[in-house]
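Hi support team,

I'm opening this ticket because the web form for multi-chain structure prediction keeps timing out on my end. I have pasted the exact lines I submitted so you can reproduce it. The total is 568 residues across two entries, so I didn't expect it to be a heavy job. Is there a limit I'm missing, or should I split the entries? Thanks in advance, R.K.
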Amino acid sequence: MTSVAHTDSVHSAHVLDEARIRDLFPILAATVGGKPLVYLDNAATTQKPQPVLDALSLYYAAQNANIHRGVYQLSQDATQAYEDARAKVATFLHAADPAEIIFTRNATEGINLVAQTFGRSTVGEGDEVVISTMEHHSNIVPWQLLCKEKGARLRVVPITDAGELMLDEYESLLGPRTKLVSIVHMSNSLGTVNPVQRVVELAHGHNIPVLIDGSQAAYHMAVDVQAIGCDFYVVTGHKLYGPTGIGALYGRRHLLDAMPPYQGGGDMISSVTFERTTYNVVPHKFEAGTPHIAGAIGLGAAVDFISGVGFGAIAAHERRLLDHATAALSAVPGLRLIGTARQKASILSFVLDGVHAHDIGTIVDTEGVAIRTGHHCTQPVMERFGVPATARASLAMYNTTEEIDHLVAALTKVREIFG
Amino acid sequence: MSDLRELYQEVILDHNRSPRNFGPLEGADLRADGHNPLCGDRLSVALKVEDGLVTDVRFEGSGCAISKASASLMTERIKGQTIDETRVLFDRFHRLVTDQAAPTDDAALGKLAVFAGVRAYPARVKCAVLAWHTLRAAVDDNHKLVSTE
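Hello R.K., no limit was hit. The queue was backed up. Here is the completed structure from your submission:
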């Protein structure tokens, strides 16, 4: 397949070959209103490279059959491709065992799965769940629902003016009532990269399990769930240059084994009578019904693609972009960056004096620049910084310094209009 | 640039910089809060009404230029109108910003006609109509929180 040749050649370069990478993403050749697309909304979703598109197309054209069911060859091949994808994701996240990877719809479903199974069987009245101020709504609301149902309490770790987790406050929140910690690896609205290893270490000192939301981190840096030491880790495929509608939950085997099932249906059972159902083993216990087979295979292709490019090259390239963007944006009169953590990656959230983020978004769009404006599903972060909304440029491996300069030039147009 | 000037007309920029009838209204008879969750815009509209006539109206809140100017110009336009007339204006304004075929010079809308440019930016319609939905909630269903999502 051509995709393999593509990734091999990219891999052999060691340093990221910008032009070659961009060529692999068909959408990057698009124009918006006659202007070249400058896609800087990667924290919302990343674009898809040809190897992922090929894998999806190949599956439907040549491999389509339901999995874990047929005795015929085609079904066995589809099953093999689906389980190979699971193994690829396990390798990508450095999980000890592919059975520790559960395919979900997205990171949100991964968190909800843990809340509804582990959470409901572990958290009781008067217990506490610890999250942080910088969580995405998807790592707030599932715990709120759980706490409401159980009469438990949600505790929130505060953040500094730079957007960093206050570790002393975090430590003081941990206690005998704490049943779970759920913290984001990298903030989607601030770019902060949290010291997740330390977060886990402190919680484990009290025997408290930890979930890490890796939605943003997993496409910017190598993730090793065993080195982090976390008990659960969630990712979403569409931010990993993969398809929408597929994500993965990593969970430690002994926890997954002990957890009740999430949804009931086919594939998650060993045997069913009207009196009694025996559940299947992990990971199948948590994958009721026909899953997103093509999506899983596409995600497998996506993590292969990322590994082919290599996080060394990706991180170095994105660091160069971030430094360039930080300097260029800071030089824009009246611009204030929101989120200035010492450890941050690939996200630039900002406000402009006298101009609402939404107006910025509309104006730069007329120059072909796609950025996100609003609260980014992190309303508590907006409240913490006293802003109704921010404009956010977020970077991926295919972005260039020229694109950042294009954004900065588009911002001068904002000033021309708003004065 | 010409397209953008259609959206960000001088009148809109002026009302964004210096919104009219902005601030709390003591002794209001009707009030509602509006929220556009997509962009975080929040505003409240408060009215004094005598014999079915809007004698005073003010708004508070934060939002983008389009939502703020829309609220400001709306308050100017509806002062002195009957409640029923505000409902008619709501419909005309809604048509102005959403209907590609609607006239761009509806005399009844007065200065509000500057918002005709919004129809070319579907993502911004919610901003333009937030104040109007909030007004409608205030006159139809006092103390309601409305959302344009």
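A quick check on our side: The mean pLDDT of chain B is 91. Let us know if the file doesn't open in your viewer.
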